Amino acid sequence: MATHPEEGESLLGMFTDRLEENAIALILGLMVALSFVNVVRRYLFNASLIWSLEVVLMLFAWLVILGISYGIKKTTHLGVDAITNLVQPGPKRVMAIIASAICVVYAVLLMKGAYDYWAPFAGLDVTSGRWFPTGFTETRSRAFMETDQVPFPAFLGFLPDLINDGDRYEKLPDVVPYAMLPFGCALILLRFVQAFIRILRGLQ
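RE: above sequence
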């Protein structure tokens, strides 16, 4: 899925391009590998990885969120152009600017909601403000919450001291799979801002 950087593309843009494409490929590979291994174990050895289904569901959710931002970058999302095709280039550009500005505002709201949902699982405070962030509000921590079956990996051994007051985890904490929400929404916001800038500059 390699792409060539556009003329004038920033280093941040190039980095996020590679990050999205490699992450999507890795997630797809992990989903296939886990499903295959679980099928083989079940039918040949009458055993299964009880946590694999939960991990595959997490990976699928991650894939969807990353796929949204990737689709925005590639302009592959469904667009209705029945009205814009009837107007002249000048009004069409104005309509495109208005539509892209609305998308940026929507992405900001989405980012706020994603962060506010994830923050308690990381032991952080949620943002204040009904629509746009105006500060932070003290929030009851949910850092103790864990997944149902996924074992706690040793390489995340720093998490209990970091977010859970030193209390050890038996299973993977919910903060890990939910971290894709603010990360993915940040990418969506970045892609909408990039599209808005390209439209303003007459490049899209």
